[in-house]
Amino acid sequence: MNISLASLNDVADIMSFINSEWKEGHILARDEVFFRYEHQIKDQINFVILKDENMKINGVLGFIPSALEDDSDICTVIWKVSKNSQNPILGIQLLQFLQKEKGVRTVLSVGINKKTIGIYKYLGMYTDSLNQFVMINKNIQEFKIAKVNELKDFDSISVSLDVNYDIELIKQELDLSDFNFEEYKQNIPFKNKKYFCKRYFEHPIYQYGIYCAYLKDKPVGLIVTRVQPYNGSKVLRIVDFIGEEKSLLSFGNFFSELIVKEGYEYADFYCFGLDKEVLINAGFCLIDPTKEDLIIPNYFAPYLQENIPIYFFADTNKIQSLRLFKADGDQDRPN
What is the separation of C-alpha 290 from the centre of its chain, rounded to a whole number of angstroms? Predict the structure, then answer.
């Protein structure tokens, strides 16, 4: 058995492996253009692969660097060893190979199976789940996506603004030229401008809305959104944030008006590491995934009206530096 990083020559075999061993018809098994967008950097394919003595792929671990440079944090995605394998630790060996790669600062994964949490803890990983916040449009008469039993439960939500940030829609990469990504290098994962632009401006399928908060004409906060239509209705999903957390108060005020103006049922926000009190003061409500009086779905392909916790692991003890969101890794990817 040989473990190595994949090359361009391995693309077809990896796609075939995903189709037969992971999920038949998966987008990474059928769409080579999207596969290369997600996993190709120059001549490298961002997969760790395991080949047997016949050079047949028996295991894969896909990953996405968050900074597209050395000393990058790495989000793992598809992680699979062939069902015919007789060695139960091959998957762990793939992960350990990635952890030892030059330039890897932290390895993490957003969207792990709850049943595997014990394994990650055994390996010394930190595990937890993202918090899901929601801002309900109280003008909606009939919810076709969310389940909201009592609108009055949201009457106490208020927005507190000590400092008012100006919020503007960013339409091109050039508008980000003055935003200081390096200021947030302590964040895990750290996202540089190159990653951010590729992820949100160059996505071949999804269209994202990027909003910037300005304080005295200085850009200090970025929020990324995506509109999710379903069943004759639509919602706004907030999938990423970088910047001063105080700007979330102004973002909250902005989105409270936007969801009414555009007729979104709600805006939801999966995140970890942000100050919960700031988000609540910004007008968001923290969802209790164990209760069914308020259901804010995560799955739309196919649609599933359930609260879905998103679990993660990170091989770091710098828990205070973790800033995780729905768009990290492959959680906001078409299937």
Answer: 22
